Batch of 3 targets.
Target 1
Amino acid sequence: MDRCPSSLPVAVCVLMGSFLCNLIHVSYGQTSQELAPQTLLHGGLNDVIAVCFSKSGNELAAVDSEGLLAIWQIDQKKLIGKVQLSDGMGDLPCLEWDADGTKLLIWSHKVGAFVIDPRSMKQTTIFSKSKGLQGTIPYRYRSTQDLRLSPDGKSLLRVQSPLIDVTDEVQASDSVPSYLEEINIETEKVLSLDAPRYIMCVEYYQNGQFLLTDLDATLLKGDLNPGSQKTQVLRKTSKKRQELYDNITIIYRGILGLSADQKYAVVSGVSGEFKYDESGEVKNSISGVVDVFQLDPLEKIKTLPFTKINFEDQRISNIFSQLNTVCISPDGSYIAAGSLSGIIQIWNRKNMQTVRVINLKYEETPRDIHFAPGRQPLCAFIAGCEYSFYLIDLNKKRDFKLSAVQTFDWSADGKQLAVGGGEDGAVLIFHMEE
């Protein structure tokens, strides 16, 4: 995908067998044919963990678990080239193409960021891992918490945030800053920007602006124009971070999704706060929510409540009710979110009504929910330690499932779907019929 939520946990497990032998089709209410593969790409890779279409849909990039990158010309099934990336780039790499397909951005929070010229396969280092940035407290910083390539492919928005592991650090983190900067790829000039306490996500916005969220689900807007490097709070939440469960900090707030036309944004949050009685027992219930915003002019349209599963232990119920993935379809018509409890909920943005609720059970936490671009209401995500891939057709009420898929991406027109995973190192491309 062209987006990598590096701040979110991803289960690590051993894949058995090849996903090519595990195509399952499930139909609800009508008979339909299986989702048939159209193109199979081989490039001598191991298990593929990241794929990304160019904006034209003519090229596809993939990275395997050993950090080997391959780029193909899809219509000719031609391997353009391969290059071995730096050590560590096989750990949750993220890929993004510029608009004209002349630059491929590759980054990992543990290593740094690199730009690949797909014609020569030349690799240029933009920055390496963190140089030990220090705030008012000596926290360890991610090399990159979030990174976005500008629409013109000339610069990057980079976020570095502290690694917070235990509740004592969470309570003190109000005084610990994130670092936000814009990097010019060609000149390597760095523009430091104003940042709130702890940035979760950042997105380029219109007219040289950007949107970002913090860990308290506050929505902010910033300006990249010279002399205007201050962030403006668009919507401030009143909900503060709380210690959640013993000494384990599990917090999922401030995940940001933006429609392709930049008219709407969605931000994950929670309803209520964690409260305890004198004996330490949890005395209230919280649940995940999705705040929906119209951006120009700014207006909060709705707070969407999320379906909750109650466990015997209220603390566990509260933790597993939090959302760890949220998105809005490119045209702004649908909204989807997934919780730690294994529930996926999909809403129609126009009437704010629930379209589907899918219960995968808590063993299958969903991640990376994305809608297909174009007119087809197709939603896809990966869930659980076995990396089950689900494709949801909201119009025809059909669900498809693939086993052992670690990564997927839609082409910009929504007509191609690439999936990668398994031990044979292949990438499978499906043609999505209207």
Target 2
Amino acid sequence: MRNVDNAKTAGEELVKWTKRGPGWDLAVRVCMAVIFDEMETEEARKAFLAAAKEEGTLLPQWQLARKAVEIWEGRCGRALPRWVRPRLCKW
């Protein structure tokens, strides 16, 4: 799992995918357009999410929250405060 936070990273991830349907094709084109300042970044985000859903790689919200906790704890070297955990996901 990789954090995709810009059009360049999204494009790099898209070329790794095996399913290359219409959603993938659109996402690649939109990401390229964003890189060349021809479209807004929000359009790339929407296209990437649609392609990820089509690919089957879009994680459910609870898995994203759990992964965020793991990343935070790994980077900070300490546990996430108890008062924050219930708000992110149910364990």
Target 3
Amino acid sequence: MKIHTLGPAVTDSYRAAEQYRADHENLEVVGHPSFEVLYQSIPELRGELLLISRGGQNANRGQLGGPALPIR
């Protein structure tokens, strides 16, 4: 299973996903270049996990956020 979040590895979101992965076997972290790109990919990510930082901002400075959720 994969957990999708903002990349690269130096972002807080990616580091949080890595920490979550440390407690869950067989989980791969996938970084995306922006939350907008990640949101546009949701239809293809069915059955995988999504981690969005509560303090994240999109390119228009709008707030994003929430817990790690399964994509159904």
